[in-house]
Design brief:
Blueprint lengths: L6 H15 L55 H9 L22 H4 L33 E4 L19 H7 L7 E5 L3 E3 L16 E6 L7 E4 L4 E2 L8 E4 L2 E4 L17 E5 L1 E7 L2 E3 L3 E5 L5 E7 L2 E3 L23 E4 L1 E7 L2 E3 L20 E3 L5 E3 L2 E3 L4 E5 L7 E2 L2 E3 L2 E3 L3 E5 L9 E7 L2 E3 L11 E8 L1 E7 L2 E3 L8 E8 L3 E7 L2 E3 L4 E5 L5 E7 L2 E4 L5 E5 L6 E4 L2 E4 L7 E2 L5 E2 L1 H8 L5 E2 L10 H7 L6 H8 L13 H11 L3
Parallel strand pairs: 1-2, 2-4, 3-5, 4-7, 5-8, 6-9, 7-10, 8-11, 9-12, 10-13, 11-14, 12-15, 13-16, 14-17, 15-18, 16-19, 17-20, 18-21, 19-23, 20-24, 21-25, 22-26, 23-26, 24-27, 25-28, 26-29, 27-30, 28-31, 29-32, 30-33, 31-34, 32-35, 33-36, 34-37, 35-38, 36-39, 37-40, 39-42
Antiparallel strand pairs: 40-41
The chain binds calcium ion (CA) (3 copies).
């Protein structure tokens, strides 16, 4: 197709696509991303061309309870279920009772890595689904555990808290390579200007090299970065778990003497590897970058239950240009050609911009909460707040460059675009078998970060196999947001879409927007509820023929005049009878305004005693960590509460 189009036609089409449907269509391919490629490289080529479609199972370090000595019968994992689920009195937590219950020499959450925190009912390291979702560890005989504290001394052996070493770099030298060893940092302590370099490797996914914490403080170890913490720098490193650390990039901290406004990556996994886990950490000011490189490939990376906030770069503002400065494009996470990447249960807040702290760090169209590419990616249970532009930007610049992406049960608020599965290029079928299910989106666009009038929830172009189901897309309440939709279907290609069971509620302009194309086939839009209680919006805007489209059994209500419920583009607006005639949706239902409770995040803040604003709720959510874990600050629990208000 490319060869028969003149470049000028391609450019014209790209510009039309940009104007019509894609907020960052001018973003070029990632292959020239300045942040990518080893530091020793000249930066000229960063493309990782090797893509494997081989499915590799078991990417999680997870659980190695069987390898630990704590297999004696003092483990009461059977009884803890009784305590948590019966109507009887709660049993005391094994992890907060002053006793070494499993006899491994480590007592409670202070020391025993089988405890994710004081609330854990067992000192044993059990599978995640028996540990409230956390990864826990035993320290087997034969493994080294090196303790590191501010009071330590590098002439010590590091083998006990009393004989801790002082520096992280010395601990790195003491642990083995390809070893199931542990570096344990004392909680409440701070290290400045340290890093692990390229670091080392663990044995396998169940026996990783672990960097975690110990001690009586509830404060995560604070690591103040003046560069990266780990930089694979083109090499292969596998089976490493980074657990429960707080990273602050001093280069991005306006209060610090090292401030430059130009933070480099906190974690820079550019190279290859498998079995990499980052869990329960807090990242401030610096991006996490993952990129298969130089014939190497990452397969099996998990980024779970972290707080990732305010990754940014100064001088992103371009006066008079809301697109911003293309030279600096930090996002919370950037990932290129990562297979089996799981991004789960994190809080992403305010990534890509930091203008309230650094005046020149504007939101731009290039910077996002995450900007990701790979096969078999899972993005679930995340809170995604206040992105510079897009919350989840999927990147695919060639047919099939993303396959099998799952986006499930995430919570989205503000930013200006929720999910973008399109953009950049216009090749056919770039996204294969994507599912976008059970997400809640509210007030997308409200703060107008880039100053644009966008409020786009789900934008899909050039997909081959797509399920958009059971999402709840709410609230476009700010009158300046004139360019909004809940779902947009566009692009020159698209087949086998099932759009089903979604609720679109109070969206300005139109809830569903379709730009049909001759390249669209087998697109089914059925069983959705499309309601505007008070903005007088159109419900569906279908700007062309209905070939390739099936509308069925959707329910509609708008407070707009009856003749304005549906738009047929240049053919004007019609009422529901006109819509039935035009679309063929004979069973289109006109419903009364449903008596829902109309819940939102401000209401949720009140519900859990976290003030009554989004800002207050997010401040509490950013305090989430494994020692003080709160289920009521997780996306699935918040989403369930909102859904309940809307009868689902
Ligand atoms: Ca105990
Ligand atoms: Ca123990
Ligand atoms: Ca446990």
């Amino acid at each position: 197709m490319r060869t028969i189009r003149s470049p000028r036609v391609v450019m014209a089409l790209a510009l039309v696509a940009a104007a019509c449907s894609n907020g960052d269509a001018m973003t070029p391919a990632s292959t020239d991303d300045a942040t990518f490629g080893p530091l020793t490289d000249d930066g000229s080529s960063t493309n990782a061309s090797s893509i494997s479609t081989t499915a590799s199972e078991g990417s999680g370090p997870g659980t190695d309870a069987s390898t630990g000595p704590g297999s004696d019968d003092s483990d009461s994992s059977g009884s803890e279920d009784d305590g948590s689920s019966s109507t009887g009195p709660e049993l005391p937590s094994e992890c907060d009772d002053g006793i070494d219950n499993d006899g491994d020499g480590y007592a409670d959450w202070h020391r025993d890595l089988g405890c994710y925190g004081p609330g854990d009912h067992t000192e044993a390291a059990l599978p995640r689904d028996e540990e409230d979702g956390f990864t826990t560890f035993e320290i087997p005989e034969g493994s080294l555990a090196i303790y590191v504290s501010n009071d330590g001394d590098d002439s010590n052996d590091g083998l006990t808290p009393e004989t801790a070493v002082q520096t992280i770099s010395h601990a790195r030298d003491l642990v083995g390579d390809v070893a199931h060893d542990f570096i344990l940092l004392r909680r409440g302590d701070t290290w400045r200007g340290t890093n692990l370099g390229r670091f080392k490797a663990g044995i396998d996914a169940a026996h990783p090299l672990v960097v975690a914490s110990y001690g009586d403080s509830m404060e995560l170890p604070r690591i103040e970065l003046e560069g990266f913490f780990i930089d694979h720098n083109g090499q292969s490193r596998s089976n490493v778990a980074i657990i429960g650390l707080h990273f602050v990039s001093l280069l991005g901290d306006p209060q610090d003497p090292s401030f430059t406004g130009a933070p480099v990556e906190s974690i820079r996994y550019v190279g290859g590897g498998t079995g990499l886990l980052i869990e329960g950490c807090h990242f401030e000011y610096a991006e996490i970058v993952l990129g298969s490189y130089g014939g190497l490939e990452y397969d099996g990376v998990e980024i779970r239950r972290n707080v990732i906030e305010r990754a940014y770069h100064a001088n992103t503002c371009t006066p008079g240009n809301p697109n911003g400065n293309y030279d600096y494009r930090p996002s919370g996470i950037y990932a290129s050609h990562i297979n089996h990447l799981t991004i789960e249960g994190n809080v992403f807040d305010h990534n890509g911009w930091n203008q309230d702290q650094v005046e020149s760090a504007c939101a731009t169209i290039y910077n996002h909460n995450m900007y990701v590419n790979g096969h078999d990616m899972v993005i679930k249970d995340n809170i995604l707040a206040r992105a510079s532009s897009i919350h989840i930007k999927l990147l695919s610049d060639a047919p099939g460059d993303m396959i099998g992406t799952v986006i499930d049960d995430n919570l989205f608020v503000e930013g200006e675009i929720g999910v973008s599965a399109g953009g950049n290029e216009d090749d056919a079928y770039r996204f294969v078998d994507t599912t976008i299910t059970s997400n809640v989106m509210t007030d997308i666009g409200r703060s107008m970060p880039t100053g644009r009038s966008l409020a786009w929830a789900i934008d899909v172009l050039d997909n081959d196999g797509l399920l958009v189901a059971d999402n709840v897309v709410l609230n476009n309440r700010y009158p300046e947001l004139t360019n909004g939709f809940g779902l947009n279907i566009g692009g020159g290609s698209g087949r086998d879409y099932q759009i089903e069971g979604n609720l679109f509620w109070r969206l300005r302009g139109r809830a569903i927007r379709v730009y049909p194309s001759g390249g669209h086939e087998a697109i089914v839009i059925t069983g959705n509820e499309v309601v505007d209680p008070d903005l007088s919006s159109a419900l569906v805007e279908h700007r062309g023929g209905f070939g390739g489209y099936t509308y069925a059994d959707n329910r509609y209500y708008s407070n707009a005049g009856a003749d304005d419920w549906f738009s047929l583009g240049n053919a004007g607006t019609v009422d529901i009878a006109g819509w039935r005639a035009a679309s063929g949706e004979a069973d289109a239902q006109e419903i009364a305004l449903p008596a829902y409770e109309d819940r939102d995040l401000e209401g949720y803040a009140v519900e859990i005693g976290a003030g009554d604003t989004l800002e207050e709720l997010l401040a509490v959510a950013r305090g989430q960590n494994r020692l003080t874990w709160r289920e009521d600050l997780t996306a699935p629990v918040i989403n369930a509460w909102i859904r309940e208000g809307f009868g689902r």
